[in-house]
Every structure is written in C-alpha cells, then in structure tokens.
Amino acid sequence: MRTDAVLAGLDPEQRTAVTAPAGPVCILAxxxxxxxxxxxxxIAYRTLTGEVSPRHILAxxxxxxxxxxxxxxxxxxxxxxxxxxxxxxxxLRQVRYFAPRLLEGRAMPELLxxxxxxxxxxxxxxxxxADRTGARDLASEIEWAKSSLVEPSEYAVAAKKALREPPxxxxxVAEVFTAYESLKRRQGVIDFEDMLRAAVWGxxxxxxxxxxxxxxxxxxxxxxxQDVNPLQQRLLDAWLxxxxxxxVVGDASQTIYSFTGATSSYxxxxxxxRREAVxxxxxxxxxxxxxxxxxxxxxxxxxxxxxxxxxLELVGQRPPGAEPELKIFPDEAGEAVxxxxxxxxxxxxxxxxxxxxxLFRTNAQSEAYxxxxxxxxxxxxxxxxxRFFERPEIRQAMIAMRAAVRSIPxxxxxxxxxxxxxxxxxxxxxxxxxxxxxxxxxEALAALVALAEDYARAPAxxxxxxxxxxxxxxxxTAFNDELSRRAEQQHAPTVAGVTLASLHSAKGLEWDAxxxxxxxxxxxxxxxxxxxxxxxxERRLLYVGVTRARQxxxxxxxxxxxxxxxxxxxxxxxxxLERTSATERAGDRSRKPDRRRPQVSSCRICxxxxxxxxxxxxxxxxxxxSDLDEELFxxxxxxxxxxxxxxxxxxxxxxxxxxxxxMAERRPSSPAELLAIAGIGPRKLxxxxxxxxxxxxxASPDEVAQKNFES
Length: 711
Fold this sequence. Notes:
DExx_box_DNA_helicase_dom_sf; DNA 3'-5' helicase
C-alpha cells in the first residue's frame, strides 16, 4: 500500500498526527474522533516511508480486544509485523524470554490468575477475618498499592494520602499485604504486578537485557494514556531508556479508573516533561450526532480540576439527529418499565437489539431492567457482571430468606422480615461497608429490600377472573415465591440482545441507541464521592456514558427509589435537568420565581416529566402513541384559516399547528382544560374559547362562523 492511500480520507488534524516527525507526540483525542485510525495510520505511514521497521515498533494498549483490533488494522494498512500488545502481555513475553538469564537457569514462576484465594490465606495468617468479598477488596487494595509502587510498610500512609477507603484498618491491610508477599515467595508464584516489576527489574538491573530489548523496540505508541498507572509508566520509561520516539494518545475527560491507581497526570504533564513534544487535538466527532455531541460538551464544559486543563470541545460531523430525550419518572420501577417499552419499540422499528444499551452507575441497578425487559419479552445480555439473581450474594440471601420463614413470626411486616433474614448473612441496613466489592454486595442486598418495599406497597386486592378479588399475600413466603418467579423468568437464554452494563464497563464501546438511567444525585454522583476530585470523576463517568451513543440518547431518573419514597434531585451534572437556580437551592424564598422557566408537566400516557415546549403543549412524549381525532383536527384547521383571513393575520397567530394537534388529541371541553394546554392563556381563551368548545362538541367551521356572526 502506498503512503497516499494511508493519508487518504484523513481530516487535517488526523493527517498532522500521522505525519508528525519522530519524537514525542501527544494526541489528545476526544470520544469518537478516530484515535485508533490516527495511531494505526501513523504507524503504517512511518513504516511505508521507510522511516522505521515494523519489527522495531511496540504499540501498547489496555485490553486484548483493542490490541487485536490494532493488529488487524495495521495488517490491512500494510504494516504487518508490528507488535501490538497490552502492558501485561508485552511484559509477560519479555520476562518469559529472559527468565533463564534473570533467574540463573530457573523457569519463570507460575503466574497467579487471581489474588483473592491467596489473599484470603494471608488474611488468616495476619489474624484478619475476611470472607470471600473481604478477600476481593483486600486484593484490590494490594493491586492498587503495587500498581502505585507502594510497599507494605508504606501502605498506611499512602492510603491516607490517597483518601482510600480500605475494607479494614490500614494497619491491618498492611499486615495482610506483608503476609501475602511472604506467602507468594514460599509458594514460588508471582502476580501480574510482580510480572511488570520483573520486566522493569530485568531492564534496570541487567544492562545486557536492557540493550537487547531497546535494540528490538525503538519506537513506542501508547493508547489510552490517561489510564496508565505508576508501575506501567515505570516500565515504559525502562523500555525507552531515555529515548523520545514516543506517541501517546488519550483523553483526560475519560479518566474514570483512578480507584485502580490509574492517573491522567502523565498525559497532562507530557508537554511539560518533554519540551519538544508535538501536541495535536482531535475534536471532530464521527461517532455521534451533533445533538449528542452538544450534550457531551455541555456536561464536560463545567468540569474543574487538572483533567479540565485538557478538556476538548467536540465538533459533530454526522448529519443532525434527534434531540436527547430527558425523562423523569415517579420512581425507578416506572423508569425501568418505560425503558423496556422503548427498547421494544426501537427493535420493532428496525434497530437491532445488539445496537441498544442501558447504562447505569452500579451493577446493583441491573435487576429492575432485567425484570422489565424480561416482562416486555425483550432479549438482553448483562456485560461485565453476572445477572442479578445469579450473583452469589443474592443466591445466599434467597436461601437465608427461605430458611427465615420457619423462624420469623408470620405476622412480621414483610420488609422487616426481609431485613431480619438478611441480617443473618451479616448485612446491616444502615451500615454500608468500605471496599468496592463489599459495597457492591451490600447494594445488591439493599436492592432486595427495595424489591420487598415495592411488593408490600402493591395494591392489596387483585382481581381473579370476573368473580371478584382476593386479599394479596404479602408474607415472606409469598415474597420468596415472587423472587423465584423472577429468577426463573430472567434466566431465559439469550444470544443477542439489549446490553445492560455499568458505565465503567461501557468504556470503549458504542451503540446506536443508549439509555442512561438512574441519573439522580446519590446514584450519579454516588453518595460515596465526597471530595472535589471524586465528584469530577463522577462527572467524567456521565460524559463517557453520553459519548457512547451514535444516534439516539435517552436520559432519565426516578424521583423516588420506590413508589411513595423520598424524592431525589436530578443529577447535578445535567444542566438540562436543573429545576432551580443556585440562589433558590440556597433557600432564598424572597427571590421571585423566573417566569421564563417552563412549567413542569407530565406525559398523560407514561407519566414522564415533559421538558420540551412542544411536548408540554401536546401533553405527551413524542414517542408515546397519539390519540389524535383527525376529523376534529381538520375542522380546527379550516376554522383557523377562516379566522386568520378575517383578522388579516398569519394562521399561526391564531393557534400554532402544535396547539391544534394538542386540541385534537386532548379535546378540551372547559376553560380549565383549554388553559391546561401550554401556550394558551386567558387572552386566547377569551378570544377563541367558545369557538374551540363548539368545534370539539361537533360543530362545523361554518356553524361556528355563523354563530360568531350572529353574536
């Protein structure tokens, strides 16, 4: 392939990135701006011009899927032979190759696939009682420490400085960390962080190894550079050995993994650390419609902190599309039902189920959507987590609740009975634990309590055929049966379906239609985000979610978690959902209300809060079915035309088309009903009210005109 073919179709900024000279190059690439295209074409261009040899290039990314895609694209561009690997895969390959030399003839130790089991053993030796969940959280803390180049003796101080929330006292975590390292040495095994450290040690402490590796790899490309941690950066520096032929690409606004030790500081400081660096900004968004891009820009425009210094203002390149739909529902259950119905409608209208995603902040939120989609007969797949009823803690809880039927008095209120049953598993309603895995497990069990609250609030009477009604059973036994029914219903096998995923696991993916749900303060941002830095990362999570959508975007939240529950505020990062000014939020009651603010109204069909003016006028969402009286609409049009001609004014001055549609759908028969249509005030009621009521009552335009003439 010739170089002109590699350059063909690139936009000016991509071309600049591809043809930039050797040396430090920093590509700041916004979501959907073609970063993979830019870096693969840069690699291909340099190899095809003879500037570098493919075998001397190492391209590093963070997932095996991304590395495979990069290799495939490079092969298509005529640059086969380039090594494209994850940090771990590249380090593993080098450590295995040099193990006989580094280990004096011994083979490389066995690699631990998971830390949790050995961490559990280490915890027992350190006198720390940790169940499976606690062991996972301890393993996460140890991974964070090792990725951050923190030794066991330094952990307590480093954790406090980093505002970590460890699952146990920091000193105890440090003891487990020490015992874990000792246990690994005794058993002759290493973990993934050890492997990266071994690669660093091999280069830094063995000149012959360093010389061979640096002779092999002379040019480096690092994708998703905002996600690099200190240990990975140490390895990259070892590979470079002071050289500067390095291309990095990243987006500080997509920094969402700081809890793992990842830091955007290396991306932010790249131009300062390398004075000769060429910095290119890719801002042309080829993924999303201008409407989606506009919302993404609005979300991230308010960002603060270090990452905001590299904020990019995206420019949509696709044809215009639908405006993002903003929905507010009375509760989360109603929100889930509406999402499922809309998914069903999208699929019926031709959108493949695999091109639809429902994204939420925590995996514990998935149950409501699994249930609603199952009841709507919409296939779905859960990405990055188990289905709700397949999770070990939920299975254990259901066993505990079945056992509790024998020990908890039958007259105990349902919610209290569920809480007591869960207490037997160690769950405490008012004490969410520290640690990511433990907290996620706590939230999943809290979701069971919320289900019990919903079940208890359901109507007390249920009709049976035509014969009448029976008292609904709200005992623990009946609730257990309901959970079993749900579990069975939601376990139907699926091949392809709507994707259910957390915002973290959605990173790097995209869909035609995206539902961002649960956008309420306390969920997004989570209540656990307390510092300015943590809140900004929550904002970036929302930004990542918005930028996953290609064509169609829905944003929603339930005002209460459960029917009749306490009302919540909308996500503070969505300016479109703001209801009050900062002054009003501060409690200034003397301030006059802003008359320009739209009145809050609800869809008369699905109950969602209506925000757009046209939707408020119609009294329904644009996607909800219309009940237009076509004959009435035609009479209204003829009457409006005659009235406008008589008054010598344009027709819209009398009533707009949208107002006529609203009248033909809502058929107002009283002043109050006519005034309920947005845009109709007392003046128009006085001018045209009697005519409208006559037309709604069945009169013809001629009859109305004659009556007006006689009066």
